[in-house]
Design a protein that fits this description.
The chain contains five helices and seven strands. By secondary structure, it is mainly α. The longest helix is centred in the first third of the chain and has 199 residues.
Length: 328
């Protein structure tokens, strides 16, 4: 048998099985529909019977309710008639009892008011004595506390003044040390400029003075930086300080005009440095140099001039303006 024939035969079998299943499903659906219809008819009949029985029971209950209401009205009328007589008797008795109770209550109230007045006077006197004693104790406690507080305040003020004096002395020592280092640096720079001017232009007693000092670093150190000479005789040094020749440090002193221009430049930087310190609310020396593009000499000269003028002060190596110190 070929594959095609086998496939067709299986297809016919599947179709036949499908037809048989469809017939079975159809029969099952028909049987279920008939059964459901029978059950629905039975339920309708049962519901009709239940409604009939419920209506008859409702009519009977309504009849019983009407009869109960009639009996209740008759009994209520009889009770009202009997209660009217009893109420009159009870009202007269209650009025007599109420009169006696009011008289007794008035007597007790008068006695209670007398007793309460006496107790209130006694308690007021005792409370006044206790209050006087409490006020005296509180006054003594407050006085002792104020004395202790004054002593603590004086002690803290003394400690704070001592700390401020210590910090001020420390700042003065640091400032003196800084100025000493600056003086040494300026002297070395002046000697370097003098020696450099003598090396370039020769000895000229009318313009500069040449000074030789003992070298502080090895002789093999090479000159660092760049020196330019103008036609009018002004020597410009743009280098890191420390040029050496033949084992001796060389320094050149610029003319008097250059010194005056440097001083004027330092004074010109004061406003810039003061504005920067106020804007950042306190800065260190290195921060001022990096932010304003100043060298160490210019920054130190400007800060020193501002400190002398009383515009800024130094606290823990931080320069602050007097306005910021007043706010803190």
């Amino acid at each position: 048998m070929s594959l095609k024939n086998s496939w067709q035969q299986q297809r016919q079998q599947r179709q036949q099985e499908l037809v048989e299943r469809q017939q079975m499903v159809s029969q099952s659906l028909s049987a279920a529909r008939q059964e459901r219809q029978l059950k629905a008819a039975q339920l309708r009949a049962d519901l009709s019977l239940f409604r009939t029985a419920l209506a008859s029971e409702n009519i009977a209950r309504r009849t019983e309710l009407q009869q109960f209401c009639q009996r209740l009205q008759a009994e209520t009328q009889a009770l009202l008639t009997a209660a009217g007589d009893r109420r009159q008797i009870q009202a007269a008795q209650l009025a007599h009892d109420l009169t006696v109770f009011v008289q007794l209550l008035r007597q007790k109230t008068a006695d209670f008011l007398v007793t309460a007045q006496f107790e209130r006077l006694t308690a007021a006197q005792q409370l006044e004595q206790e209050l006087i004693a409490f006020v005296d104790d509180l006054r003594s406690d407050v006085q002792s506390y104020l004395v202790e507080l004054e002593a603590v305040r004086k002690m803290r003020a003394t400690q704070l003044n001592q700390v401020l004096l210590d910090h001020r002395a420390k700042r003065e020592l640091e400032t003196q040390e800084l100025f000493q280092r600056l003086a040494v640096f300026r002297a070395e720079l002046q000697r370097f400029c003098q020696d450099l001017h003598g090396t370039v232009w020769g000895d000229n007693p009318h313009s500069v003075a040449v000074t030789r000092v003992t070298p502080a670093i090895p002789k093999k150190t090479k000159p660092v930086g760049r020196v330019s000479v103008a036609p009018n005789g002004t020597v410009t040094l743009s280098a890191t300080v420390g040029a050496f020749q033949n084992g001796n440090s060389v320094a050149v002193v610029p003319p008097a005009k250059s010194i005056k221009s440097a001083a004027g430049e330092a004074i010109a930087h004061e406003n810039t440095v003061y504005d920067y310190i106020q804007s950042v609310q306190g800065a260190r020396l290195t921060e001022i140099e990096s932010a304003l593009s100043l060298n160490r000499v210019q920054a130190v000269d400007a800060l020193r001039s501002l400190i002398k003028k009383g515009l800024i002060t130094q606290r823990d190596r931080i320069y602050l303006s007097q306005m910021q110190l007043a706010h803190t």
